Predict the 3D structure of the following.
Amino acid sequence: MLSFLWPITQKVASEINGDVEITWYQGKKLLDTKNANFSYGSLDLILEEAFKYTHIKQKDTVLILGLGGGNFIKKIQQDFLHTGKITAVELDKEIIRIAKDEFGINTNDKIEIFHQDAAKFIKNTKNTYDFIFVDIFVDNLVPDFFYSTVFWNSIYSVLKPKGRFLFNAGILLKNSTKLDLIVQSLDKKMILFKKEGINKTNTLLFGEKS
C-alpha cells in the first residue's frame, strides 16, 4: 500500500550490472539497473507491443538468452497460456537469485535456468527451439558480440523449421548498421521484420525461419 505513495527500493550489488534495484511502485515489483528497466516496468509494455507482431504456441520449446527477472516467462504464460519447455540462460548469478527469490522464477520440470555466458551456450547446445528471445543487456547496452554474424548464424542453426526469434536490439539505438549486418546475413534464410520506437525507446528485430 505504501508503494502507491512513494517507491520503496532495495539496492543489490551485481558484479556485471552494477547496483540493481528492486522497487515496489504502485503495488508492482520492478527490477531496474541504473539506466534501464530489466523487468516488469517498461519491458512489460515492450513485450505487449512485440506480441502484436509475433506469436508463441502453447507447447513451443522456448530459449531465453538474458533472464532478467523472468518477465518474458510470466508474460508468455499469461498471454499465450504457454506450458512448453523453457530454457533460460543468464550470466549474472545475482540476477538469477533475484529472479528466484523476488519474482518466483524457479526451476521445475518445465523451466531450466543456466548460469552461463549466452554466447558459449548457443555455440555448444545440441538442442533446437521453436522460439528464441534475445534480451542481453549490461545496464542499458547490448554487448557488441550479440550483433555479430557469428552469433546470429548460431541462432539460425538452433531454430527449428518455422522457428521464430525476437531480439530486443537496443535502447535509443543510433547505429543501425549493426542491425543491417544481421539482416544481410539472414535475409535469404529468414523472414525478417524490424520495428523501431517501441515504447518510444527500443528497437526490436523479429525473424521466422523459412
